[in-house]
Design a protein that fits this description.
mainly alpha, Farnesyl Diphosphate Synthase
Length: 302
Amino acid sequence: MKPFFALSRTTHGVLDIAAPCFCALLWLGDFPRWQVILISLFTGFAAYTAIYTLNDLVGILVDREKFTGGINPGYSVEASDMRYPLAQNALSYRDGFLWFSVWFVLALIGSYIINPFIVIILVTAAILEVFYCLLFKVTYLRTLVSGLVKSSGPIAAVFAVDPKPSPYLLMLVVAWMFFWEIGGQNIPADWNDTVEDRRVNAKTIPLQFGFERAALIIMTALGLTVIEGSFLPLISPANLGLLYVLASGVLGYFLLLKPGFQLYQSKTGGQAARLFDKASYYPLSQFVLISLFLVANKVFGA
């Protein structure tokens, strides 16, 4: 099973699930019913597994071209000698497609059970992921598509607990996740793969604008993420308060701003990988934080 889990980046996918979990708790201001939690966790796992697999299925030819000179060691969240198993011929395309199909169908079924509108969100995310892969050699603006794909999980989570959410408040959630993905994940990942991407004339922000401007874009995106995070409590009916905002900001500083500034100073691939790693834990930290506050509210009746 190791090649399959490497194909779907399961470790990273599990971390990513924390983002929609956080957004659901934030929006509801409470813990959902256990039935909703179970079906949503399963559906989220299936969806992230399918979408990450789709990335490698669509990009297999480019991945093989990129890694003719070898695959870089990656970063701790995704470091594995089995990275890109399709490109390494460790897994057949047929098996990879079957793996994607099973999980995507399961995600569709789970989405329909939770809220049929989530099916539209899931299908849209899959289409955007295909476009994201196809734009690899076309334009650096593909990073914007990546932000939309990652935002689809939190959007779906909101619809899982509220069938008619406020579009204005929903946009705040989207913006928060959008800039986190761009500054903490997408551009740092491209930075780490600069050598391989240059071989195939890829259009990424580090290659198109250089490391100095790429670092500035990263810092801007991360700054916006932390600022928007401070406004997220306005969404929630829960009594979160100033302490929550301060704690959220501290987590943002250590997991986003500090490693982002270190990358701006060093402009090295290793630091880009470290930023990617720390940023990967940011949604999880927010999920743990709001969980603690919601439990405290129940215990102390705040």
